[in-house]
Design brief:
The complex is a heterodimer of chains A (about 525) and B (about 350).
Chain A lengths: L12 E5 L3 H4 L1 H12 L3 E5 L12 E3 L6 H14 L5 H7 E2 L1 H8 L4 H8 L3 H13 L3 E5 L1 H4 L4 H15 L9 E3 L6 H6 L6 E2 L3 E2 L3 H11 L11 H9 L5 E5 L3 H4 L3 H10 L2 E6 L11 E4 L8 E4 L4 E5 L12 H11 L9 H11 L8 H4 L4 E2 L23 E2 L18 E6 L13 H6 L4 E4 L1 H7 L6 E5 L4 E8 L7 E5 L27 E7 L2
Parallel strand pairs in A: 1-2, 1-5, 2-3, 4-15, 5-6, 9-10, 10-11, 16-20, 17-19
Antiparallel strand pairs in A: 7-8, 12-13, 13-14, 16-21, 17-20, 18-19, 18-21
Helix pairs in contact in A: 3-6, 3-7, 3-9, 12-14
Chain B lengths: L2 E6 L2 E6 L4 H7 L25 E2 L18 E3 L3 H16 L15 H8 L23 E3 L9 H9 L5 E4 L6 E4 L15 H5 L5 E3 L12 E6 L8 E7 L2 E6 L13 H5 L14 E4 L2 E4 L2 H19 L4 E4 L6 H15 L4 E2 L5
Parallel strand pairs in B: 1-4, 14-15
Antiparallel strand pairs in B: 1-2, 3-4, 5-8, 6-7, 9-10, 10-11, 12-13
Chain lengths: ~525, ~350
């Protein structure tokens, strides 16, 4: 997020697109409701009638996969009304003319046809966002989990720069990260192309710095991203995989392909706290420790690095994940001798400039928001004040693109996926109380579709895509539009990702979890 | 900022303009009892327990809704004030079960604390007592309306923190109750089970079901930590007794969320003790995963990875690091892959 979570109650206009915060980021959802109570305006763009849509001034019920057309259309209206921030565009950005040209063809009428959103709603949304004193965009995986995810994000950046809604308190572009430490895992360089602190593997200077720090020569070529790994396993380019704290069989798209890749490996090590579906395929399973059993840090979606403090000893014979890695490194001839996780953080702070001033001691009970370049720096509440990282903000002209697989005659329903309030990914299934509260998948189907299919609320049906099939209970609800079925990723018994499409964004290789074609059949 | 000077119990203090008398007292470590007040909620002035005497005012005003004026003279502990508070407490206790020894809230109950402080006997007023059914139809929250003192904090928390407005007063007079519309049990209402109501309840009317009978406040140590679920990064206190996590309580001092949490963060920590936890290394032998010693498992992994690296090169090995593990562990994993194995084949579910 460019802003902080506690700046949300002071936002004057919120544009929530591809995000269901009251369920997927509940406490952020409550902050948004606090902003509403203070008079903020709300625009929601979502095909589903999520909870916030019911509180919205304008609910744009767009067709899935038409986000770029929607955003271009809103920019077209802003320009037609001269609501753009000319001063901001002139001083802080470049490339604006190309975008002005590109959005010309996205007239309200054209966009209404593509997105299914009425013209008046487009105009109202453009007015609210562009004329508010402090407007903020909030997006999540409904924007990024598309084959055009990167372009979706850049479109939102265009919109923010067009109106100067970035680089200010309570005004910015705010992706809400899904998992507790997905921000931190990225920051730490658990990515195939960057070292800790987003320093490029391909840069000789950067590589020299890490070679000096670690005392070994390093590979200059970026490695495999997740989707590449399973294909490489099948083709035997990849022989061994070490999986720590992930369950790709359940959480990655096109799960049957993932399983095939894992089964093709010569050696699979899984380090986990539960016997996951992936662990069941392993040659060796190493028991890790839960968050309550270790000390370290997580970095949240507002870049706040916070302490995780050990409360109890590891359960049974488990060890912390850090300890296991250190023991393995040492056994393989490169001793990892760290007294504590605090000492690991000292090494991180020397190598990753954003973490330069971070120590466990300084984090204390309040944490620090990176960048924290030095030991006296108080942390950074919001980003891009006065200047972007690259200097000027670069406008990018973006054209609308269709998802990789749309419904057709054989698979007539559009499957959309997401999270629900009572669960988080797959491991809250292991909480007896949450399991009791919300025990099974309830695929959302529109009443008119249910009628056509002859299925009733609570009935178990079969859902199939080109890649797999499963059984699930159905919830008949107008939350979803006709032609759409919505499922979560939470349940082992209805593993939604056997259905989803393995197509991915060309830059980030993020799977298109949000759109694919499925058919629903009654079970007799 | 304009500062005002006032006298509290003969002591001169200065506070910013706009401060309430209650906050002025608390800023200066002068104790005032409150039942309906919480710093994160708007003040109702409902319980009247925070009354003080202010020179020139006819009645005893509630300090939580009285703003400081220049030159104000406040008395917080004189007999008139203490008697007024004692009367309020006697009235509350007259219709409150005195089953403190089995109450989950014992040791953390504001009513019990003040009743003790003010010498409340429970015998001054005798009358009818409520006998209402307990709502335990959900896995998370126990609601005992017989213990409710109608302070209204849970109602405000539901509205002002969570933005749901599920709770409100119903009925009138002696029959007044707090609960969801139509007096439905929590699990039949639209409740999110965020538990904000539980976090502000000053008595045993709303308690964490999972913690019932698991430990007394004085036996529990609290460890502040960061939630392992979504990316919001809420902090809370793990309640630990005898080396075991018995539950979660919110901590108003934490930076992101204050007292707010969601159903997963507040009530989902029983996953730590799930029967599905792996508690020992497992090695596949004859097609089955069987328990093994750490040395055997680690030696096997180190040997196999070493062999594969030697035979097929470092780029034939990859790792998935974890968005659930700590920064330090992710750092170690990528360093292990880059510096020990010699490949950049490290990724995690960065995009979900």
């Amino acid at each position: 997020m460019t802003n902080s979570i506690n700046e949300i109650p002071n936002v004057k206009a919120m544009f929530v697109i591809g995000s269901n915060p009251t369920e997927a980021h509940p406490v952020i959802g409550t902050k948004m409701k606090q902003a509403l109570a203070k008079g903020a305006k709300l625009i929601v763009a979502d095909p589903r009638c999520i909870d916030l849509a019911e509180h919205a001034d304008v609910w744009l019920r767009l067709r899935p996969g038409t986000d770029i057309a929607l955003i271009n259309g809103i920019m077209n209206i802003i320009l037609a009304n001269e609501w753009e921030n000319k001063e901001f565009i002139a001083e802080r950005t470049e490339g604006f003319e190309k975008v002005r040209e590109a959005v010309q063809q996205y007239t309200p009428e054209v966009v209404s046809k593509i997105t299914g959103v009425p013209v008046e709603q487009l105009q109202e949304a453009a007015k609210i966002y562009a004329t508010a004193e402090r407007a903020s965009i909030f997006y999540t995986l409904g924007i990024t989990e598309h084959t055009c995810g990167t372009d979706n994000v850049m479109s939102l950046a265009n919109l923010a720069m067009l109106t100067g809604n970035i680089g200010k308190e309570s005004s910015g572009v705010n992706p809400m990260r899904g998992q507790n430490n997905v921000q931190g895992a990225c920051d730490m360089g658990a990515l195939p192309n960057v070292y800790p602190g987003y320093q490029q593997v391909a840069s000789p200077e950067v590589r020299a710095k890490f070679e000096a720090a670690w005392g070994v020569p390093l590979d200059p070529n970026p490695g495999f991203m997740i989707p590449d790994m399973f294909g490489a396993a099948v083709s035997k380019d990849l022989r061994a995989l070490y999986v720590m704290g992930e369950d790709p069989v359940i959480t990655d798209a096109d799960a049957n392909h993932v399983r095939k890749g894992l089964e093709a490996l010569d050696f699979l090590v899984v380090q986990e706290i539960f016997l996951s579906e992936t662990a069941k395929l392993a040659d060796v399973v190493l028991p890790g420790a839960s968050f309550a059993e270790k000390t370290g840090t997580f970095t949240n979606t507002e870049r706040r690095v916070q302490m995780v403090n050990q409360a109890i000893k590891p359960i049974g014979n488990a060890k912390t994940d850090g300890e296991i890695i250190c023991e393995l490194a040492t056994r393989m001839g490169y001793p990892f001798n760290y007294e504590s996780s605090a000492e690991v953080m000292q090494e991180i702070s020397k190598l990753a400039p954003q973490f330069g001033g971070i120590t466990h001691e300084r984090l204390g009970t309040q944490g620090l928001q990176w960048p924290v370049p030095h030991a006296e720096h108080p942390g950074t509440k919001f980003l891009h004040e006065g200047k972007f990282n690259r200097g000027k903000g670069l406008f990018m002209a973006i054209e609308n693109q269709l998802p990789a697989e749309m419904p057709d005659e054989e698979y007539p329903f559009l499957l959309n996926t997401g999270r629900k309030l009572s669960h988080y990914n797959v491991f809250t299934q292991h909480s007896p109380s949450l399991g009791d509260h919300s025990p099974e998948e309830l695929a959302e189907v529109n009443p008119s579709d249910a009628k056509k299919l002859g299925i009733e609320d609570g009935e178990v049906v079969q859902v199939a895509s080109r890649r797999g099939e499963l059984k699930t209970k159905v919830k008949v609800t107008e939350r979803v539009p006709e032609g759409m079925v919505f499922m979560t990723l939470h349940y082992f018994d209805s593993p939604t990702n056997v259905l989803t499409n393995g197509a991915y964004d060309k830059v980030t290789k993020t799977y298109e979890y949000k759109v694919c074609g499925v058919k629903i059949s009654k079970i007799n | 900022m304009e500062w005002l000077t006032l006298t509290i119990d003969g002591r001169e203090v200065s506070v910013p303009k706009g401060t309430t008398v209650l906050d002025a007292c608390r800023m200066n470590n002068i104790p005032i009892p409150t039942l309906c007040h919480a710093p994160e909620l708007t003040s109702a002035g409902a319980c009247r327990l925070c009354v003080v005497q202010i020179e020139g005012m006819r009645n005893l005003p509630p300090s939580c809704v009285t703003q400081v004026a220049q030159g104000m003279k406040v008395e917080t502990q004189n007999p008139k004030v203490r008697n007024a508070r004692k009367t309020i407490l006697e009235l509350l206790v007259a219709n409150h079960p005195l089953d403190c020894m089995t109450c989950q809230k014992m040791g953390d109950c504001s009513l019990a604390e003040y009743a003790y402080d003010y010498g409340v006997t429970g015998t001054v007023y005798q009358g009818e007592k409520r006998c209402l059914p307990i709502d335990d139809g959900n896995p998370f929250i126990l609601r005992d309306p017989n213990k409710c003192i109608l302070c209204g904090k849970c109602i405000k928390a539901c509205t002002e923190i969570q933005g749901k407005s599920i709770l409100d007063f119903s009925f009138r007079g002696f029959d007044t109750q707090v609960g969801p519309a139509f007096n439905l049990p929590y699990n039949e209402s639209d409740c999110d089970f965020c538990g904000s109501c539980v976090s502000v309840c000053p008595v045993g009317a709303l308690t964490e079901k999972q913690m019932a009978g698991k430990g007394r406040p004085w036996e529990v140590s609290k460890v502040q930590t960061t939630c392992p679920f979504c990316g919001v990064g809420c902090n809370f206190d793990l309640n630990v007794k005898d080396g075991k996590v018995i539950g979660v309580t919110s901590n108003p001092e934490v930076p992101v969320n204050g007292k707010a949490l969601c159903v997963k963060g507040r009530f989902g920590m029983d996953m730590i003790y799930s029967d599905n936890r792996i508690t020992t290394p497992l090695i596949r032998k004859n097609g089955e995963l069987v328990p093994a010693e750490w040395d055997e498992a680690l030696d096997l992994v180190a040997t196999k990875l070493g062999e594969i690296k030697k035979t097929y090169g470092p780029n034939s090995i990859a790792a998935l690091s974890s968005a659930h593990c700590t920064n330090e562990e992710n750092y170690l994993m990528q360093k292990f892959m880059r510096a020990v194995i010699g490949t950049n084949n490290v990724d995690h579910c960065a995009r979900t």
